[in-house]
Amino acid sequence: MKKVTIFICFVFSFLLIHAQKKSDIGIFSGGSYYIGDINLARQFYSPSIAVGGIYRYNINLRYSLRGNIYYGGLKGDDLDFNNDYQIQRGARFNASIIDCSIQFEFNFFPYQTTKKKDGYSTYVTAGLGYTFFIGSDPSLNHLMIPFGVGFKININKRLSAGLEWDFRKTFSDNIDGVQNLSNTVYKSFIHNNDWYSFAGIFLTYRIFRYIEECPAYF
Length: 218
Description:
8 strands, mainly beta, eight-stranded antiparallel barrel, 49% strand, Porin, 11% helix
């Protein structure tokens, strides 16, 4: 865990020092929810409030590198589902997490943060991250793979806003406290590891002067 934390801090420091003229900083607000052995497939099940911070380095009109730190909640209760197996089992959990990740973004359209032209784009994002469980067994902390889709648009020369829906593929089957589910009738479609997701809106601010891009390279 210490090595992962040091790596994330190093990446953030590198971006701050070497990428200042093409950088944005922002906030995220939305919801977080979980999919696993209790909630097998229902999207946006029992969401909790999620908030966080974003630092983005705009490499060029198509690619960006960003770091996220999000706080959210995950919860589930077998009694929310109408099947005899879960009602009899009666499992439930409630957890708070800190989600740290480094992600690449790919813009489907050329996107430049200071102009109305080329001032919006849909995008996909993916990377690597680490999940910290607050007030829980430290053994629950683990690596995860974040990926998602979004849309961003310029409001003016400094401000941008957007929508994003992210998934986290974890390598743990113990987020919900239910492990190694043996009942194949009620086994999750995403196998035996638990997942979680963030969905919401973000607002970013250009903290330094943006360098104009040469369109010949895009």
